[in-house]
Amino acid sequence: MRYQAAVDLVVAGAGGGLAGALRAAEAGLSVLVVDPDEHFLRGNNTSMSTAMIPGAGTRWQSAAGVEDGPERFLADISAKTRGAADPVLAAALAGLSAPLVEWLADSADLPLHLVRDFSYPGHSADRLHTVDGRHGSALLRHLYGRVRAQPCVDLLVPARVVDVTLDAVGDVTGAVIQYPSAYRETVPARGVLLATNGYGANRELVTRHMPEAATAEYHGGQFSLGDGLEIGLRQGAASAFMDAYQGHAALARRSRTLVGWATVMHGGIMVDTAGDRFGDETTGYSEFAAALAARPGSRGWIVLDRRIHDLCASFTDFRRTVEAGALLWADDVDTLAERTRLDPEALAASVAEQVSRASGTGGHDRFGRTYFEQPLRAPYAAVEVVPALFHTQGGLAVDGEARVLNRDGAPIGGLFASGGAAHGISGHGADGYLAGNGLLPALGLAWQAANTLSCTYAHGEGTAR
Fold first, then answer.
1. Which UniProt keywords apply (predicted)?
2. Distance (Å, rounded) from C-alpha 449 to C-alpha 191?
3. Which of 130, 109, 40 has the alpha carbon at shortest distance from 317?
4. 7-244+393-461 has which CATH code?
5. Taking Cα atoms as reference points, which of 365, 448, 445, 436 lies closest to residue 123?
6. What is the pLDDT averaged over residues 443-462?
7. Given CB 3.0 to 4.6 Å as the disulfide criterion, which of 173, 268, 292, 455 pairs with 263?
8. Count of C-beta atoms within a 10 Å radius of residue 307
């Protein structure tokens, strides 16, 4: 296979990068999307997400009477990261979040709705927008369909971008593409968007940059090997926040499917293998993964009831967990303890504590948790969970225009990065992750990269063809 044409933009990665491809095509640019995974529609991190996209100040919020805006979103990011997030990138993403969501609905015809049935930790307003089923596979398939309908977008799969070429000034002139046969060719291009995700599947890099996550089960795309990071560093780019990542404490051990944190936010609790609670579950699913990993056996159980089960049925991931038989049901706590092999006295005390707090005793519990939606009621269910690494949040340093920056802080002309290939807005470690911090940079920076590139052409530089 040979691709014998010059293009305006090469997009390395067919996940969130498809938003950039679609936006560039709308602007009249020619685009080539390259991905190494023949099964990218179900195998990359965008497709594996819960399709939660933050938008601060959208029309859906306005219609629902939700007061929100970029400043409030930025304050939430700062609070969750304890001020450690890159203020420039955080402000840029908070500012473009609403225009991005509205563009996805209006230009990409994505059927979005505002999530109002529960709130994710750290968001002070209901600002997450999603699709029916709340699963990234539906989001990605929709974007893919829109991209394929664009005559100026080509897709090259399986193949991978392994490098970029620069001119004497240091601006991008093309992308080096390698095929499964190991044959390489250079496709002339005026811009390259590195949308290859992070390096969660690269155990050596994970161990080096985030050793506390090295033993966590990786639950992400197999091609998230750090390709974009390697390409950028080779060309003199800077990196940032390399220790940042999204963990998750709700991966079902039996089925290896996502249980989802809605179970907790609707009133569920987590206990360890002794049946004891060990923290405030509402602090966040990312940081709670580390707490779970520190318990005996690095595993625990989420305890819920029929009400929570029914409320979480809107999530495709949760339904798959149920269908896989990962939930154990019982008519009383003693029977649940027997089925889970947990200490019956400890489990009974943990459930009783939830019931007491949820029944209106007020204040916070011994871990600081203040919110329990309703008391747990029989019949009860429990699902065994293990800590997981979902994706990394550190990468190539970028500015608010999605331009990759060199070690002096200047942009490398024509080189862009998005999603996990770029540094994120989650600060350091796992504590600063907010729901949507993965998809917003994946979709938003890709979209912004196309805007930046098309703006450059609008100022008289022309197009490649």
1. FAD, Flavoprotein, Oxidoreductase
2. 9
3. 130
4. 3.50.50.60
5. 436
6. 83
7. 268
8. 15
d(CA 440, CA 91): 12
Instruction: Classify 217 as helix, strand or coil.
Output: strand
Tens-place pLDDT, residues 15-60: 999 999 999 999 999 999 999 999 999 989 999 999 999 999 999 9
pLDDT level of residue 3 (50, 70, 90 thresholds): confident
* Residue at token pair 């023949």: 38
User: How far apart are the C-alpha atoms of 245 and 197, rounded to whole Å?
Assistant: 12
Report the distance separating Cα 346 and Cα 351, nearest Å.
Answer: 9
Q: DSSP letter at 281?
A: G
Please give the structure tokens belonging to residue 407.
């070690």
Report whether CATH 3.90.700.10 matches the domain 246-389.
yes
**Nearest-angstrom CA–CA distance, 135 and 51:** 5
Q: Supply the DSSP symbol for 249.
A: E
- Amino acid sitting at position 122: G
**pLDDT of 464:** 41
End-to-end CA distance of the chain: give it in Å, rounded. 21
pLDDT digits (tens, 9 = 90+) for 169-202: 999 999 999 999 999 999 999 999 999 999 999 9
**Residues 385-394: tens digit of each pLDDT:** 999 999 999 9
Contact between 404 and 232 (Cβ < 8 Å): yes
E strands in 281-360 = 300-305, 327-330
Confidence grade of residue 455 (pLDDT, cut at 50, 70, 90)? confident
Instruction: Give kind and range of the element (H or E) at residue 392.
Output: strand 380-392
Rounded Cα distance, 219 and 48, in Å: 9
CA dist list (Å): 104 to 64, 130, 180: 19, 11, 33
Calpha distance 29→457 (Å, rounded)? 9
Residue linked to tokens 């000034």? 169
Q: Distance (Å, rounded) from C-alpha 248 to C-alpha 235? A: 33
Strand pairing of 31-34 and 7-12?
parallel
Separation of alpha carbons 315 and 297, rounded Å? 28
According to CATH, where is 3.50.50.60 located in the chain?
7-244+393-461
DSSP string, 444-457: HHHHHHHHHHHHHI
User: Does residue 257 carry a pLDDT above 90?
Assistant: yes
Looking at the DSSP assignment, which residues form a beta bridge with residue 177?
161, 185
Is a pLDDT exceeding 80 seen at residue 457?
no
Question: Rounded to an integer, what distance in angstroms lies between the CA atom of residue 257 and that of residue 325?
Answer: 11
- Please tell me whether the overall predicted TM-score, pTM, comes out greater than 0.70 for this model: yes
pLDDT at 462: 44
In the chain, list all ranges with CATH 3.90.700.10: 246-389
Q: Show the DSSP H helices in 29-86 as ranges.
A: 40-43, 45-48, 59-64, 70-80
